[in-house]
Write a structure and sequence with these properties.
There is one protein chain. The protein has ten helices and ten strands. By secondary structure, the protein is α/β, with parallel strands linked by helices. The chain has two domains: 241 residues, 3-Layer(aba) Sandwich (Rossmann fold), CATH 3.40.50; 54 residues, no CATH class. The chain has a five-stranded parallel beta sheet, with helices on both faces. A hairpin with a 2-residue loop joins strand 3 and strand 4. The longest helix is centred in the middle third of the chain and has 21 residues. The mean pLDDT is 91.
């Protein structure tokens, strides 16, 4: 009899690890942002969603293909709406009234991602939904509709076979581009209820079936069960945000601890704990007006950073050092 009153999802340790000497590339839904931001918080080398948040497997695969080929976005690839220029392949954060600026920023993102991906050890792909929107004028699936009218798109759900075929082709390109890279697939636990409750379940099922087959066919691919952890271990609305759709910070942190147990070594975890001490000091709200105490705190944190950087030369705290140096100002006599 299970007396813990909860279902625990078992996760086995991976054959490879993520540490401070490996580079991790993340693409996909907003759940990728959540995991990526935590990896970044601990100063692990990451590149997070260079095109912005992407949800469907077709758009994520297309973005990867663009990055691998280092394709340049042309002026004719952009569309104007409400005085803003957009790319259907990029998040709205790239949109602007200045067309040349959009071109510059999108192409810079592609170039930076290309340079980072070729040296990456691991790529984490988070798939959000199998539902896609195809722009009728071009017959092309878009990553972001940019609030164009719905009647300008054809909406449909990708089949399992379509996802498998497109991703097998992308994985082969990725292998040629970076032969040693490992691919971690995960399914976002965030429900896409705008698609409909039943439609969301069909969508997640399609993604799960497709990813399972991809892992069977590609030895460099594996799966992390973030979706299952939320569905089974955290099936309570206290683990959701106020909108009751996105998961809460507490849930993200719980999943991240599971992720660490699979992909992070004990040695790296100890280093992450040291980084967190400095990070907490940097975010600490100083309430005292006692300059002597503030200086002592700043000196203490600067010493911690110095010792850490001496033992971890590839981890830098430039922003934090400047902050603590500004706190440490000699007391001026009036």
């Amino acid at each position: 009899m299970n007396t813990s009153f909860r279902t625990t999802i078992k996760v086995n340790r991976s054959s490879f690890t993520i540490d401070y000497n490996t580079s991790t590339f993340l693409m996909g839904s907003c759940f990728s942002d959540s995991v990526g931001e935590l990896l970044n918080y601990y100063k692990l080398p990451v590149l997070l969603n260079p095109f912005g948040v992407l949800y469907n497997p077709a758009s994520i695969a297309q973005a990867l293909n663009t990055i691998i080929s280092n394709k340049t976005i042309q002026k004719d690839d952009l569309f104007q709406k409400d005085d803003l220029w957009h790319s259907f392949d990029f998040h709205g954060s790239f949109s602007d009234t200045n067309k040349n600026l959009v071109l510059k920023n999108t192409n810079s993102a592609i170039q930076n991602a290309h340079n980072y991906l070729i040296k990456s050890n691991c790529i984490i792909i988070t798939l959000g939904t199998a539902w896609v929107y195809e722009y009728i004028k071009t017959n092309k699936i878009v990553a972001n509709c940019h609030k164009f009218h719905a009647n300008e798109f054809k909406r449909y759900k990708l089949t399992v076979n379509t996802i498998i075929e497109s991703w097998n082709a992308t994985i082969e390109k990725l292998k040629s581009f970076n032969p040693t890279i490992k691919i971690i697939f995960t399914i976002s636990p965030v429900r896409h209820l705008k698609d409909g409750a039943h439609e969301n379940q069909l969508s997640k099922a399609s993604l799960l079936l497709a990813v399972d087959e991809l892992i069977q066919q590609n030895k460099n691919c594996c799966y992390f069960p973030s979706y299952e952890i939320v569905q089974d271990e955290l099936r309570d609305y206290r683990f959701y945000a106020d909108d009751m759709i996105h998961i809460s910070e507490k849930a993200v942190n719980y999943i991240f601890e599971k992720f660490k147990s699979v992909y992070i070594s004990e040695k790296t975890k100890k280093t992450m704990n040291e980084v967190e001490v400095i990070a907490k000091g940097y975010s600490h709200r100083i309430l005292s007006n006692n300059k002597t105490e503030i200086q002592k705190f700043a000196i203490s944190m600067l010493n911690k950073i110095k010792i850490f950087e001496e033992n971890n030369s590839n981890v830098k705290f430039e922003l934090e050092k400047n902050y603590f140096k500004n706190l440490y100002q000699p007391i001026r006599l009036l």
